[in-house]
Specification:
Blueprint lengths: L10 H12 L17 H16 L3 E4 L5 E5 L3 E11 L12 H16 L6 E8 L10 H7 L4 H6 L8 H6 L18 E9 L4 H4 L4 E7 L1 E10 L3 E2 L11 H19 L5 E3 L3 E4 L5 E2 L2 E10 L2 H22 L2 E10 L2 E2 L2 H13 L4 E6 L4 H5 L5 E6 L15 H19 L6
Parallel strand pairs: 3-4, 3-5, 5-16, 6-15
Antiparallel strand pairs: 1-2, 2-4, 6-14, 6-16, 7-12, 7-13, 8-11, 9-12, 10-12
Family: Belongs to the peptidase M20 family.
Organism: Luteolibacter algae
InterPro entries: Amidase_Cbmase, Bact_exopeptidase_dim_dom, Peptidase_M20, Peptidase_M20_dimer
């Protein structure tokens, strides 16, 4: 048995697993991966992972939300140390987002298993379902943490109108069993997740890893300005109730609102808009659009929400429009557990890694778990800050550095006596 100082991951084994899983759902024309939640390719990926877990001497299982697990039993079964992420993808995805955290978690457990190390606490790899949002996102981790609702199970649909219920039933699953996938807080010692940064900070500063101190909160809105459709040639400018001009005014307000009401980490994005009736010779009578805004502070998120509503109201009065908004999604900010981040920093220093502490600007399954149990994340660099794209990439040596940090941290956590 190797000493803790000499425990290392096998990067070639990690590489092989990543490339094998990337082939499931890959489109050769655009090089993107299409493994969206509860699609045929997603289920094929889950079957591959289950087989891989079993082949490496771990106990494989899945729950009612189709979260896939692999367990390395310790002297005490609970509370367990969890490590993982997700393997579902956005359309035309890269090969690392989510997948990397699952494959690295698997590698860490099989290294410990191969070295015949029996931990004091059991470790469980978990691959959560639908993190990427085909049916709204974080389905698996919501089930895991007990925050999944009957309403979501029954009513969630994807952009093509396919119901979550039907997608699960098509693969022989009873959707109601997802509500039984909950783990109690006293069953969770801690949760760790390794992920690509999805931003440029580590890459630009040539750092090997990032230790995540907090994960930003976000709100996602759908909005509508309603004015009056009319003839583009015969309607004088001062008679118009142009819904698109309302959107244009609001878009220009975003920088001011962020400067006056936001913080250094605030972000706001209008990522989608539809102009109706959509004719070149018609004044737009309606515009429907999205707003995504984020910050790690709940107070700032609330201030931004109020400021956006005031701006919408003022623009509506000035332009003679009506506005509506609906909150489609809301994820609360979560801070990493200080005990875990200190342990990660200690292990990074022991391994001689170049690291920094940082914020996550994207949501993760860790955010849900962190609301009921101690949580921390490791980031590795994203080349050029690219993600959700076939251009997404991380150097193998950086993956190896992050994976060894995960392995050494899991070992330290697992070998401490129960209750510590």
């Amino acid at each position: 048995m190797k000493t803790p100082e000499k425990l290392r991951v096998d990067i070639e084994r990690i590489k092989s697993d990543i490339l094998t899983l990337a082939a499931i759902g890959k489109n050769e024309q655009d090089r993107g991966i299409y493994r969206m939640a509860f699609s045929d390719k997603d289920m094929e990926g889950k079957r591959w992972l289950t087989k891989r877990i079993s082949e490496n001497g771990l106990e494989a299982s899945s729950d009612g939300a189709a979260n896939v697990s692999g367990v390395l039993k310790g002297e005490a079964d609970y509370p367990r140390i969890y490590v993982g992420s997700h393997i579902d993808t956005v359309p035309c995805a890269g090969m690392l987002d989510g997948t990397l955290g699952v494959v690295v978690g698997l590698e860490c457990l099989r290294v410990l298993c191969a070295e015949k190390i029996q931990p004091k606490k059991s470790l469980e790899l978990i691959a959560f379902s639908d993190e990427e949002g085909r049916f709204g996102g974080t389905f698996g981790s919501e089930a895991f943490t007990g925050t999944l609702t009957m309403e979501k199970v029954e009513s969630a649909k994807d952009l093509n109108g396919v119901r979550l219920w039907d997608a699960m039933a098509a693969h022989g699953m009873d959707p109601l069993k997802a509500l039984d996938a909950t783990r109690r807080p006293d069953e969770i010692n801690s949760y760790l997740e390794l992920h690509i940064e999805q931003g440029p900070v580590l890459d630009e500063n040539r750092l090997q890893v990032g230790i995540v101190e907090s994960i930003t909160g976000l709100q996602s809105w759908s909005l509508r300005f309603t004015g009056e459709a009319n003839h583009a040639g015969t309607t004088p400018m001062d008679y118009r109730k142009d819904a698109f001009m309302g959107l244009a005014d609001f878009a220009h307000e975003l920088p001011r609102i962020l400067e006056e009401n936001g913080g250094d980490h605030s972000r706001a994005t209008i990522g989608k808009a539809e102009i109706l009736p959509g004719a070149p010779n018609s004044v737009p009578g309606m515009v429907e659009f999205s707003l995504d805004f984020r910050d790690p502070s709940p107070e700032i998120l609330n201030e931004l929400s109020l400021a956006f509503q005031k701006a919408l109201a003022a623009i509506s009065r000035r332009r003679g429009l009506k506005f509506e908004f609906h909150i489609q999604g809301e994820i609360h900010p979560v801070a990493s557990d200080s005990r875990l981040t200190e342990l990660l920093q200690d292990q990074a220093e022991t391994l001689g890694l170049n690291f920094t502490r940082m914020l996550s600007g994207a949501a993760h399954d860790a955010q849900l778990v962190g609301r009921i149990a101690p949580m921390a994340m490791i980031f590795v660099p994203s080349k050029g800050g690219m993600s959700h794209s076939p251009a997404e990439w991380t150097a193998w040596e950086d993956i190896e550095a992050g994976a060894n940090l995960m392995l050494s941290t899991l070992y330290q956590l697992a070998m401490k006596p129960l209750g510590s």
